[in-house]
Amino acid sequence: MSKREFQTEVSQLLQLIIHSLYSHPEIFLRELISNSSDALDKLRHLTLTDEAYKALPFNPRIDLELDEEKSTLTIADTGIGMNEEDLVSHLGTIARSGTKNFLSQLSGDAKRDSNLIGQFGVGFYSAFMVADRIEVVSRKAGEDKAWRWVSDGKSGFEIEPAERDVAGTTILLHFNEEGKQYANSWRLQEVVKKYSNHIAFPIFLTYDKSEWNEAEKKSDKVRTTEQVNAASALWRRPKSELTEEDYKELYKSISGDSRDPLFWFHTKAEGTLDYTTLFYVPAKAPLDLYQAEYKVGVKLYVKRVFIMDDSKELLPQYLRFIRGIIDSEDLPLNVSREILQQNRVLTSIRTASVKKILSELKNIATHQPEKYLEFITEYNRPLKEGLYGDYANRESLLDLVRFKSTKVDGLTGLADVKSRMKEDQKSLYYITGGSESLLRTSPLLEIYKKKDIEVLILDDDIDEIVFSGIDKYGDLELKAVNKASTSDDLKDEAEPDNAEALKPLLDKLKATLGDRVKDVRASVRLADSPSCIVSDEEEPSLQMQQMLRAMGQKDIPAPKPTLEINPDHEIVKKLLSRSDDAVTQDAAWMLFDQALLMEGVPLQDPAAFVQRLNRVLSLSI
Ligand code: ADP
Ligand code: MG
Prior knowledge:
Layout lengths: L1 E4 L4 H12 L5 H23 L12 E6 L4 E6 L6 H8 L6 H8 L2 H6 L17 E9 L6 E6 L4 E7 L5 E8 L9 H12 L6 E11 L4 E10 L16 H12 L7 E7 L5 E7 L16 E5 L2 E4 L14 E6 L8 H5 L2 H24 L1 H21 L4 H7 L3 E2 L8 H7 L6 E6 L3 H5 L5 H5 L4 E4 L4 H6 L3 E2 L2 E5 L18 H15 L5 E4 L8 E4 L7 H9 L11 E4 L4 H7 L4 H18 L7 H15 L1
Parallel strand pairs: 2-8, 12-14, 16-17, 16-19, 20-22
Antiparallel strand pairs: 1-6, 2-3, 3-7, 4-5, 4-7, 5-6, 8-9, 10-11, 11-14, 12-13, 15-17, 18-19, 21-22
């Protein structure tokens, strides 16, 4: 037997890898199983494409054999195997990946079709995290001789001739302290299911199973072999081969939800990047949807091998209700969280996935309106969050969100509002700030009702924040009706007939209200009410200011709205003909206070309000 040193500073490098490359020792099993899967893929590829290999048997399987007493595990495959030279160059040199060499010899399409996981050349060494001695016995397909490679992962390795019945590779691990926990069949099954459940080849585990012996009233150890993985990776199969049931079952297994999903989008992308995505929308919004520490619902796979399920980088936050899988051909197996954050491959997949999800949703909205209603009832709000954050997809999102409106029962979309617009209407209107009933009875809506213009009722508490940043839908302007500037659609009403006569009254009211108002002016938006309150274009509404204050923002100046009065209203007309200052002063405050009350803003001085009310009452009785 010849003892050989590892090439170039390998032993130090090895220690480094063992201790820093992988954060979870359990991934040793993922790496070894992936290597076996690669080896099976390689052999399959050769038997399909190479004359010299065509006659060789191909019975793909991966066998794990556990010896709990000896604390050893073997991982055996019927793949391509290695000869002496391969063992030296593939396992004797770190970061020299045989897989990479093999890949570089393949041309375009063949490369795409081969499912080669490893490309990094360090996976095998991760086994030294859990083993203090590793023996590899391998026989290359098409050759008679087998070889044994042995190493403690520190000094070097030895190679000697060995025996193996068929081609393939057997890896024997002698577990160290750290690895002992894996000398347990439960633990092994758990790790295989977690990372390798969807490997295309069957993985069997042979172990001593405890079985109850009724006759002798004790449990016996029975040597048992069971398949551990599902070996399905359903998402990699063509859509045409999959039934509704297949999709639903997979959904339940990955989401833990017992209900059927609402719908799903299955995409296979080929070209510059190769990847498969399968996204599900749960029937009911996940319970943690509005918690900061929500659980990520999309799992990342690289070539059918599970990588992680807690990366918030996979989809934008507003799509956190999506469940499913991203399976990439182009990412390295040991891709880390940090790498993911600015990984070009993942960024492209993410961008394309968002576009895909949004366009599929639009499809459903158009062709299955009832299904879409079920969807939007659960997910309107996260989509609105998207409007706030995802600038690139704002147009698509604007078409997906739904609103209450003055013209329809239930919910409606902007496209529908647009289609109902009056011929000469120039903008789309909405009202924010307050509950639905408060908004529906707002004096601000009176003129729109009179003119038969539809107004969207935005009663969700995030609506004002979201929509204050959006001023267009396509080429139409989106306007808040409680903002001071009047829109083109009201222009014909802009000047009251009695503007001149009104001026002294407006001045008097303004003098009375002092610095509680920015201005007092004649309104063009009122029909039935005597007064209303409007805010400046840039200013948050009164309700928003109240909310900000409630959230603890102290430095918000007291609201200073503009009071508008209705020149055609009884009260205003009568006031014009009064010269009595006391009555006009009371009226000024009462017009202001009632406008605030209609906006749902509490009065600053209720006692004064009541006193005035009583004075006025006693006059009229
Ligand atoms: P990678 O898988 O990234 O190439 P590894 O360190 O996991 O790197 O493995 C190094 C090389 O050893 C592989 O590329 C492959 O050529 C060879 N190898 C490892 N395990 C097996 C196996 N079970 N059968 C055949 N070859 C293997
Ligand atoms: Mg590998």
